[in-house]
Design a protein that fits this description.
The protein is of the alpha/beta class. The chain is 46% helix and 18% strand. It contains 12 helices and 8 strands. The chain has a 6-stranded mixed sheet, with helices on both faces. It has a two-stranded antiparallel ribbon with strand order 7-8. Helix 6 crosses helix 12 and helix 7 packs parallel to helix 9. The two termini are 16 Å apart.
Length: 208
């Protein structure tokens, strides 16, 4: 059911290759996005946020102490245009050249609801995804890219990105609007509840 309803498509092998060695090599989990990434609406971000939950699930797999770092780079109300400018700082400040990384990008809801024109935002998404995927062309540890999408407008807003195959290098494209859309137990207003974050983490664990 998770596979059929909860994400658009995924390349589990690509994601597993990066996180599979996390017990030995460590892993940087870096999330970029808006207020969902920021953890808005959660009472305890370090405990309830999907990225922290996912890190704890990976840590539980390790027989010995692992070296996992979680960095949340979310800013309320920002869309992919901000992400284009944010990515170089994330690469410089958060991504080690010697440790594998999982880079999660979530601007989809703000891309849909923002004041920018669809074309401009969509082109920004294309540039952001392309720049993130290009990280693996550098002499560095591998980076797996996961996109969190929204079916409310994401597929239309980002149609040029999808049609050009720009997302093909992503390890996974997760459509979080298909997770019981707007059901009270999963969402509080426009943000996932603690239970919603738990399900988002479970999807990432499911893919690895």
């Amino acid at each position: 059911e998770l596979r059929s309803r909860a994400y658009v498509r995924a390349r589990s092998d690509a994601l597993s290759a990066v996180v599979g060695a996390s017990c030995e090599r460590g892993l940087d989990i870096v999330a970029m996005g808006g207020s969902i990434t920021q953890g808005r609406g959660l009472s305890n971000v370090s405990l309830e946020h999907y990225a922290h939950r996912f890190a704890r699930a990976l840590d539980a797999r390790c027989a010995n102490a692992s070296n996992l770092a979680v960095m949340l780079r979310g800013t309320r109300g920002r869309d992919s245009r901000y992400g284009v400018h944010q990515l170089p700082r994330v690469v410089e400040d958060d991504l080690s050249v010697s440790r594998p990384a999982l880079l999660i990008i979530e601007f989809a809801t703000n891309d849909f609801e923002g004041s920018g024109t669809p074309g401009a935002v969509s082109l920004a998404t294309e540039l952001l995804v392309g720049s993130a995927l290009a990280l693996n062309a550098r002499p560095r540890a591998p980076v797996a890219l996961v996109m969190l999408e929204t079916s409310r407008g994401g597929r239309g807003m980002h149609a040029n990105v999808t049609e050009k195959g720009r997302l093909d290098g992503c390890a996974a494209v997760i459509d979080f609007d298909s997770i019981e859309p707007k059901a009270p137990r999963w969402w509080v207003g426009s943000h996932p509840s603690a239970l919603g974050h738990a399900l988002m983490a479970a999807l990432l664990v499911h893919l690895t």
